[in-house]
Amino acid sequence: MTSTAFPNAVTHYVSVDYIPCDNSSPKPPASAYDGMMTIEVEVPSQSDTNAIKKYQVYRGVLCFHSDFFNKALNGPFKEGGAKSYRLDNNVKPETFELYYNWMNTSIISYGYDSSKSPHESDDRCLCVR
């Protein structure tokens, strides 16, 4: 833990590299690793067209850990059986990346830019009074 005094604001600035989970997630069955698919997430940009970030995932693992993806990809929707799925533009790439990393490692990883003060950092740092 890094302790830095900030007058009238934050007493301690804690960098969290990862958050261990007290309850480990259940492991998917071996059959969940049989087919790959692509998850596409729009990356907001200044231009008219947004870039797309693509993640290769095991379809069964994705559905095992998420009721949302299980219903979307295995239900009667048009995405059922699809080899790719595009998340709507309300999902930030950073948000899906946290889920993607957790799904593959069982660790929620947070990072922060150490060149910024806690007041300038994004919401992936933890400030404690």
Quickly count the domains.
Answer: 2
CATH class identity of the largest domain: Alpha Beta
Helix content: 10-25%
Beta-strand segment tally: 7
Task: Please give the alpha-carbon distance between the first and last residues.
Answer: 13 Å
Low-pLDDT stretches are 1-15, 116-129
**What is the element string, with H for helices and E for strands?**
EEEEHHEHEE
Strand content: 15-25%
Strand order, largest beta sheet:
4-3-5
The helix count comes to 3
What is the global morphology? Answer: globular
The rounded Rg comes to 18 Å
CATH architecture of the largest domain: 2-Layer Sandwich
Provide the structure class: alpha+beta
Mean pLDDT: 71
Per CATH, the superfamily of the largest domain is: Potassium Channel Kv1.1, Chain A
Largest beta sheet, briefly? 3 strands, mixed
- CATH topology tier name of the largest domain: Potassium Channel Kv1.1, Chain A
Task: Characterise this structure.
The chain has about 130 residues and is α+β, with helices and mostly antiparallel strands. It folds into two domains: about 1-15 and about 110-129, no CATH class; about 30-105, Potassium Channel Kv1.1, Chain A (2-Layer Sandwich), CATH 3.30.710. It has three helices and seven strands. The strands form three sheets. A three-stranded mixed β-sheet has the order 4-3-5. A two-stranded antiparallel ribbon has the order 1-7. A two-stranded antiparallel sheet has the order 2-6. InterPro entries: SKP1/BTB/POZ_sf. It comes from Bimuria novae-zelandiae CBS 107.79. This is BTB domain-containing protein.
